[in-house]
């Protein structure tokens, strides 16, 4: 497997060896997600002249209370006047939000996940034309007994530069609905977990298990109001 640099999210710069996975059917419907938002996004490394890369996430997602499944649409845009060179989009889950599949993308090996994350996929966007966008259907699970965050870094194809990073930004609700078929979550809202003394949400399998981390123990570095947490170290 090839060795690439990843300057992402939280913790250290890690070597990204991506393990390809079979693309599975999209198991959750991404309907009624409302308008898209770039909330929690910030430019990091300078993009080439005329290129302006951003991402958006839906303002609202809905979590099935029985299966814990949800669907998210992750979109990368070039709002500039010139075409970009080759880029990639990372989709990374934290805490109670676990990314289980992203159509057309490769799973990030557990040992190469950013510190603090539990799952991630790398999407080879390629060159993105001026004014163009590309969207990816994301399958995920969300444990309403916990908080949950998602992060969308946009990098050069070799991972040496991060042009934009949205998040880690939370999805959540201040009013969990364990007795309803589904619970709506809003982007940028810290989840209020269902308390142990209240109604309990059904549990199905290991949807909230955390994968082993290659950069475990690295401290989170908060950089800026937008919540861009990242640091770098040279690869060995």
Provide the β-strand percentage band. Answer: 35-45%
Helix content: under 10%
Largest sheet: 9 strands, antiparallel
Distance between the termini: 16 Å
Total beta strand runs: 18
How many helices? The count is 0
Q: Poorly predicted ranges (pLDDT <50, ≥5 residues)?
A: 1-8, 10-31, 201-236
The ordered string of helix (H) and strand (E) elements is EEEEEEEEEEEEEEEEEE
Structural class: mainly beta
Folded structure, characterized:
This protein has strands at residues 5-6, 14-15, 18-19, 36-37, 41-43, 53-58, 60-64, 69-78, 87-95, 97-102, 106-108, 117-126, 133-142, 148-156, 162-172, 182-187, 222-223, 228-229. With 236 residues, the protein is mostly beta strands. Strands 3, 5, 7, 9, 11, 12, 14, 15 and 16 form a nine-stranded antiparallel β-sheet that branches. Strand 17 (222-223) and strand 18 form a beta hairpin.
Task: Summarize the SSE layout with pairings.
Blueprint: E1 5-6, E2 14-15, E3 18-19, E4 36-37, E5 41-43, E6 53-58, E7 60-64, E8 69-78, E9 87-95, E10 97-102, E11 106-108, E12 117-126, E13 133-142, E14 148-156, E15 162-172, E16 182-187, E17 222-223, E18 228-229
Antiparallel strand pairs: 1-2, 3-11, 4-6, 5-15, 6-8, 7-16, 8-13, 9-12, 9-14, 10-13, 11-12, 14-15, 15-16, 17-18
Index terms:
disordered C terminus, mainly beta, five-stranded antiparallel beta sheet, single chain, disordered N terminus, elongated
Short description:
With 236 residues, the protein is mainly beta.
């Amino acid at each position: 497997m090839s060795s690439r640099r990843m300057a992402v999210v939280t913790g250290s710069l890690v070597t990204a060896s991506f393990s390809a996975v079979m693309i599975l059917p999209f198991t959750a419907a991404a309907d009624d997600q409302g308008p898209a938002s770039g909330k929690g996004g910030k430019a990091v490394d300078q993009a080439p002249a005329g290129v302006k890369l951003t991402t958006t996430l839906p303002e609202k997602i809905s979590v099935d209370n029985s299966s814990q499944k949800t669907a998210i649409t992750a979109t990368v845009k070039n709002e500039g006047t010139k075409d970009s060179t080759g880029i990639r989009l990372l989709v990374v889950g934290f805490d109670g939000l676990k990314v289980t599949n992203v159509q057309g993308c490769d799973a990030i090996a557990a040992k190469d996940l950013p510190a603090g994350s539990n799952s991630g996929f790398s999407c080879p966007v390629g060159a993105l034309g001026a004014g163009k966008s590309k969207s990816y259907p994301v399958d995920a699970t969300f444990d309403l007994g916990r908080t949950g965050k998602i992060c969308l870094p946009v990098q050069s194809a070799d991972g040496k530069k991060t042009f934009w990073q949205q998040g880690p930004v939370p999805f959540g609700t201040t009013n969990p609905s364990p007795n309803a078929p589904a619970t709506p979550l809003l982007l940028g809202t810290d989840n209020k977990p269902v308390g142990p003394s209240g109604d309990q949400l059904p549990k199905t399998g290991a949807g909230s298990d955390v994968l082993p981390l290659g950069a475990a123990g690295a401290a989170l570095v908060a950089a800026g109001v937008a919540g861009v947490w990242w640091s770098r170290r040279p690869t060995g």
